[in-house]
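re: that complex we talked abt at group meeting.

here r the seqs, copy pasted straight from the sheet so there may be weird spacing, ignore it
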Amino acid sequence: MAEDRTDNRQKRVDSVQDTAAEVRAILQKHQLVEGLVQKQDMPRQELVEGLVHKQNIAELKHKLDTLHPADIAAILEQLPLDERMSVWNMVKAELDGEILLEVSDAVRETLIADMDPEELVAATGQLDTDEIADLAPDLPDEVIADVFRSLSVEEREQLRAALSYPEDTVGALMDFEMVTVREDVTLEVVLRYLRRMEELPENTDQLFVVDRHESLRGVLPISQLVVAAPERLVSDVMTTDFVSFQPDNKADDAAQAVERYDLVSAPVVDVRNRIVGRVTVTDIVDYIREDTENEILGKVGLRDEDLFSSVWKSARNRWLWLAINLCTAFFASRVIGLFEGSIEKLVALAALMPIVAAIAGNSGNQTVALIVRALAFGEINRANAKRLLAKELSVAFLNGLMWGGVAGAFAWLLYGSIGLGLVMVGAMMLNLLVGAAVGMFVPLMLQKMNRDPAIGSSVLLTFSTDSMGFLIFLGLATLFLV
Amino acid sequence: MAEDRTDNRQKRVDSVQDTAAEVRAILQKHQLVEGLVQKQDMPRQELVEGLVHKQNIAELKHKLDTLHPADIAAILEQLPLDERMSVWNMVKAELDGEILLEVSDAVRETLIADMDPEELVAATGQLDTDEIADLAPDLPDEVIADVFRSLSVEEREQLRAALSYPEDTVGALMDFEMVTVREDVTLEVVLRYLRRMEELPENTDQLFVVDRHESLRGVLPISQLVVAAPERLVSDVMTTDFVSFQPDNKADDAAQAVERYDLVSAPVVDVRNRIVGRVTVTDIVDYIREDTENEILGKVGLRDEDLFSSVWKSARNRWLWLAINLCTAFFASRVIGLFEGSIEKLVALAALMPIVAAIAGNSGNQTVALIVRALAFGEINRANAKRLLAKELSVAFLNGLMWGGVAGAFAWLLYGSIGLGLVMVGAMMLNLLVGAAVGMFVPLMLQKMNRDPAIGSSVLLTFSTDSMGFLIFLGLATLFLV
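got the structure back, here u go
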C-alpha cells in the first residue's frame, strides 16, 4: 500500500509533456461537444450534450487541480488564445498569482486582460513582495494602488525598494525572505528559534549572522547548523569567507558569481554592509533563461512574442528589424547601381558578386560569435584586444586565400577568364578582412556604448560585408577587367 | 578588529575583474624584467634583475593562493598561451583538478598538454568520481588506467556508471554524494548520524529516504529536519511528493524540471526505483551555460574555440561552415547565371535582386527563432502546428504586402518603371512566404531527425530564401519585363 502511495506522487520528468497532451485531449472532447451543441439545437440533444459537457469540464478541472502552477503555465503557453482562456478560467483562483509569475510576458498580458481588478488584487495576495514587483509593470495602476493599501508597512517598504531598481540589477532580482541570527548565541538557541517557524523559506542553505545594527558579520550554513555540536556559538561556527552582492550590482555579474562559486543563496547588503535582501539560485536560473531567450529573439529584432498572438500584433513586432534591414539592403543595392555599366559589359559579375558578400558575412559572424561570448565572460581587455585582432585578421587572411582560391577557380572554370578568377580571389580576401575587423570592432563598440553586443552586431556586420563586398568586387572588376 | 576581518574576506562581485587586472599587471612587470635580463647580460645587472624577478614571482604566487579555483580558471581563459602557461605553473598543485574542471574544453586541452602523467593522476585525486568522468575524455589512456587503479571498488563502479551515459543525459550530469536515511528512525537519530560527518555534501537541501533495498521512499528536506520536533519519525516528516529523474532522461528535460519546480537537488533512480545518484542545481546551471554557448557558437559552425588558439587551428575550426556556405552561394550564383540574358537587357535587376533575397532571409529567421524557442520548451505539437503555420504565413503575407510595397516604390522611383516596381512587390511577397514556410518546416524537420534545430536551421533557410529569391524575382522579370 505504502509502495503505491510513494510511486503515485513521485513525479517523473517525462510526464509533463504527457500531461499537456491529456489536457489537450480533454479540451478537444470539450470543443467537439460544443460544436455539436451549436449545430443541433433540439432540446433533448442539448440535455445529453450538456451532461457530457459538464463531465468534461469536471475532468479537466480535476486534472488541473493536480498540477504544479509551473506546469499549468507551460500548458497555457502552448494553447491558442480561445483554449487558453477556457483553461485559465478553470484554474483554482489561489494559483492565479503563481501562474502569472511563471508565464512569459506576452502570455501574461493575455491572461491579465481577462481578469477584473478584484481578481488581480486577490492573485497578488498569494505572492511575496519581490514577486509582486515582478508583476507590477503589467498591472493596471488602480490594482497597484489597491495592492499597496493591502500591505503592511514593512512590505510596502520592500515593494518600493524592489520597484526602485532597474530590471537588470541585483536589486530587481533579490527577495526579502532571509533568516537572520546573532553571533553571540549557541546553535541550540538558533535551532529553537527555527523550530518556531513552520518551515524555512525556499533555498535557505544559510542563515545570515548580523549585529544589532543589522550589519552582516558572516553566514551560518544550515549544514553546519546540523553537523556542529549544539552547544557551540554561532560566532565559532559561522564562516566569514562568503560572497555578497549590492543592490546596484549588475544581474549578469551576479549570475556569473552564482555559477562560478556554486551558490544557492547570497546576501545583498547596502553600502554600510547592512543586509537588505538575498539572491537565490532559483532567481538566477530564471534570469539566465530569460536573458538567453531575450538575446535569441533580440538578435532577429523580436521582443517576447506569444506563439499565438494575433497576425497584426506579430507583424508589427517584426517591423522595426525588417525596416532596418530594408534600409541596409537599399544601400547595398545603390552600391551595385554605381557599377551598372560594368555589369552590362560583363554580366558574370552579377552572378558572382553575392558569393563575395555572403562568405565574408559568414566568416565575420564567426568572429562576432567568439567576441560576444568572450565579452559576456569579461575575457577581453586592453591588454589582449590587439593580439586578438591580429589573430582574427590572420585567420581571415588564411581563409580568404583558401576559400577565395576555391571561388576564384569556380569563376575561372565557369567563365573561362583567369582575370575574373583573380579578381574574385582578391575581393574575397579583402572582404574577409573587412568581416574580421568589423566583426571584432562592432561588438566592442556596442559594449562601450552600454548596449548588448549580442543584439545588433549581426545587422551592422552584414551591412558592412554586403556593401563592401559589392564595392570591392565590382570596383576591382571595373579597374582590371572592363 | 573583528569588523576588519569580516570585511576583508567578504567577497564583492565586482572584484573579480579587478583581480584579473592585478594578475595581468604583475605578469607584465614579470615580462619587462625578463626582457631586460635578456637584453643586458652583465653579471651585476643579472643579479639585481634576478632579485626583482623573484619578488614578482612571489607576489604572483601569493595573489594566486588567495583566489578561488573558478577565478583562476577565468583568468587562465583570458591569457594568451605563453602567459597562461606561466600562471598555470605557479598554481598550487592541489587546485589543479578543480581548475581543469572549470576551464573550457579548448583551454583544458592546452593545460593538460603541459602536464605529465603523474601530475594528472595527482590532480584527479582531489576530485569526486563524477568529476573525474567529466575530465576523462581529455585524459590520456595511461592516466585513466592509473586513476582507475587508485580508486576503491565502489568508486570504480561509480566512474564506470558515469562514463557509460551519453553526454546529454541525466546519467552524465549526476553525482554520487547523496545522503540516505531510513524512514523508521527519529529525526534525533538522523541528526546524530549527520553530526558524525564533518560536513554535508554541497547542495544538500534534502536527504533521501530509502528502504532496505535502497528503494526510494521519499525525501526529507533539511529545513524540515531543522524545524520539526526531534522525536518525530522520518516517515512522518518526509515528503512523498517530489521530482525524480532516471539516468537516461535527457539533460534538457532535467534542466527544465529544475527550473520549473525550483529544485536544488533531485534524486536519480533506476527502473526499480533504487537510488543511483542525484542531480544538483549547480550541475544544471553549468549545463545550461555550456548548452547555450554551444548553441551560440554552433549556429556559426564553431566548436568550442580557445580565444588564443593558433591561427591555423582557428582557421580549421571555421572551415566546415564556410565550405557549406560556399556551396549554397555557388548554387544561388548558378540560379542567377540562368538569367544572365535578362540581366544584360535590364541591368537594374542585378541591383535589386539582393533586396528580395535579404529581406525574406531576415523575415524567415524571425520565424526560425520563434519556432526554435517553442521547440525547446516543448510548446509545439500536432494539435497546434497547423494553426502556427497559418499564422506565420499570414504574417509573412502582410509583411510582404507592406515591405514589398516599399521596395516596389523604391524600384519604381529609381528606375521609372512601374512594371519593375510591381514585379518587385510580387517577388518580395512570394519570397517572404517561402521564408515563413521554410523557417517553420526546417526546425521541425531537424527536431524530428533528432538534431538540434538551433544549429543548421539558419543555413538551410538562407539557402532557400537566396536561391528562391533570385529565381522568383528574375523569373517574374523575364516573364513580364524582358
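couple things i noticed - The domain at 311-480 of chain A is CATH 1.10.357.20 (Tetracycline Repressor; domain 2). Residues 75 and 351 of chain A are 49 Å apart (CA to CA).
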